[in-house]
Amino acid sequence: MSQTIKYRTCHLCEAMCGLAIEVKDNEVISIKGHQEDIYSKGHICPKGVALKDLHNDPNRLKQPIKKTVSGWQPISWEEAFDIAEQEFKKIRKKYGNNAIGTYTGNPTVHNTGTAITLYDTINALNTQNRFASHSLDSVPVFLVNQMMFGHAMMAPVPDIDHLDYMLIIGANPVASNGSFMSTPNIKEKIKTIQEKGGKVVVIDPRKTETANKASEHYFIHPEKDVLLLLAIINELVLQNAIPSSKALLLSDHLEELKAMVLPYTKEIVAPITGISAEQITHIVNDLIKYPHSVVYGRLGVNTQTYGTLCQWLITSINILLGQLDEKGGLMFTLPAIDYVTLMAHESKMFRYSSRVKSYKEIVGEFPTATLADEILTKGKNQIRGFISIAGNPARSAPNSPLVEKALEDLEFMLAIDMYVNETTQYADLIMPPAVGLETIHYSFVLHMIATRNTTKFSPAPLSISKEQRYDWQIMGELQRRLFTGNSLQRLKSNIMSRIHPRTKLDLALKTGPYGVLGGRFLRKNGLSLKRLKQKPEGIELSPLGPVLPKRLFTKNKRIELMPQLFVQEMKKVKQLLTPQKTELYPLKLIGRRHLRSNNSWMHNLPVLEGGSRTCTMMIHPDDATIRGIEPQEMVEVYSEFGAISIEAEITTNIIQGTISIPHGWGHYGVGVQMETAKRNAGANINQLMDHDRLDALSYNMAFNGHPVAIRKIESVIN
Ligand SMILES: Nc1nc2c(c(=O)[nH]1)N[C@H]1C(S)=C(S)[C@@H](COP(=O)(O)OP(=O)(O)OC[C@H]3O[C@@H](n4cnc5c(=O)[nH]c(N)nc54)[C@H](O)[C@@H]3O)O[C@H]1N2
Ligand SMILES: Nc1nc2c(c(=O)[nH]1)N[C@H]1C(S)=C(S)[C@@H](COP(=O)(O)OP(=O)(O)OC[C@H]3O[C@@H](n4cnc5c(=O)[nH]c(N)nc54)[C@H](O)[C@@H]3O)O[C@H]1N2
Ligand code: SF4
Ligand SMILES: [Mo]
Question: Is the CB of residue 454 less than 8 Å from the CB of residue 514?
Answer without folding.
Answer: no
